[in-house]
Write the structure tokens for this entry.
Amino acid sequence: MFSFVLVFNLRPLLMDFNEKQIQILKVAEKLFAEIGFDGTSVRHIAKEADVNVAMISYYFGSKEKLLEALLLYRVADFKMELETVMVQNLPHVEKLDALVSLMVNRIHRNRRTHKIINYEYTNTCRQIDFDAYVEQKKDSLGIIEAFVKDGQNKGVFKTDVHTKLLGATVIGTYFQVYNNKPFYKKLLGLDSDEAFENYMLTSLTQHIQQTIKSLLLNEK
Amino acid sequence: MFSFVLVFNLRPLLMDFNEKQIQILKVAEKLFAEIGFDGTSVRHIAKEADVNVAMISYYFGSKEKLLEALLLYRVADFKMELETVMVQNLPHVEKLDALVSLMVNRIHRNRRTHKIINYEYTNTCRQIDFDAYVEQKKDSLGIIEAFVKDGQNKGVFKTDVHTKLLGATVIGTYFQVYNNKPFYKKLLGLDSDEAFENYMLTSLTQHIQQTIKSLLLNEK
DNA sequence: TTTAAATTTAAACAAACGTTTAATTTAAAC
DNA sequence: GTTTAAATTAAACGTTTGTTTAAATTTAAA
């Protein structure tokens, strides 16, 4: 029943893309994340996506607009995911865990696009529209802040915390590991990409949950 | 007396660069960090550094080797800084604060180069030698781990911690804020670059110290 | 002052870049 | 079967890329 609302509200906004366009978007996402926006040529994208070079201009207008399309395709509907967690009737501690877990899962799912954003957002020469991304960041931080404030009012959470920086610790810890994958694979003794992937979604997520809980909870 | 050792031990390794070379390195660092390695042309570097384009090949061999030279120029001697903190006779809690503060200050000082590394390290197409960087990472994490283990043996630190991930939380939190500077400037009401800079070295550093202490210390 | 090496320069190089063109094919509507 | 618009193609466009060349200039030692 909920997914119904999601489909009807968001798909029209996001899914004006046909199969071939999505194919291009996915290849672009992979290559932009792996070898950078400037490092990736439209010819490389076209070859990997098995389409003619001109199709990228034909469908998206330009390489920069292709990136903007990718952002819209990936960055939307996070607010909705957040709210499905927030409306649940759970104790603050469990809800906090669920919140962090959702954030890590979400970022992990869209890690490639977020890696691109992390790098391109502060690139002043670029003409990319990051409004959708900034809005998402604002939304998520707003909901976190409200939840933390609520917990503080009810005496469950500590008050001497930099609430506005909690999100940075969650996402930052994730990306520091993800951006240094070869290093952490060696350090943690993970010898396959699957083992690394699994570690990110279990131990790393748990470490981040533990970190945020340590900051917010008084000793049991 | 200590700076003597430093000068005689390290300068020869690092400082085979003349003034003009250092000029090029600093401009390259700025541009690589601001608009990316691929986004920066050697002509742009040459113009900004006020030298002829050919001088970059003449001095460094290639654009990639220029980046390698920059890494060597910036990434060395961290181990030494770490050890000056570790040999101090301080209580574990204070030493932990000093350690985190050193890490943030160090990263902040070399933030541009580290931003470049964060992005280029996992770029598989690149032929850059990151050994110096990886060694530094290993060194710092090794020293942190040993210190934490010592604190745990003495009952000062908790034992249920992902010790190997502490560094990721410290550096990750820093970079998540730094890489989203415009966003956090707005969010935190910092209206100048100086105010942002100041926040990074005070409130943000304090938040990270608090985070690590929350993870490691039992309630007072 | 002469000489040789190091530095600096403008010009040229081929290769790769993002994008556009104009011709051709495909697919659906009539 | 014809018409019409959308999709697809190969080729070409003018720039920009990193790098090299070979000549000119500066520097410093003999």
Q: What stands out?
A: Chain B touches chain A through 51 residues (CB under 8 Å).
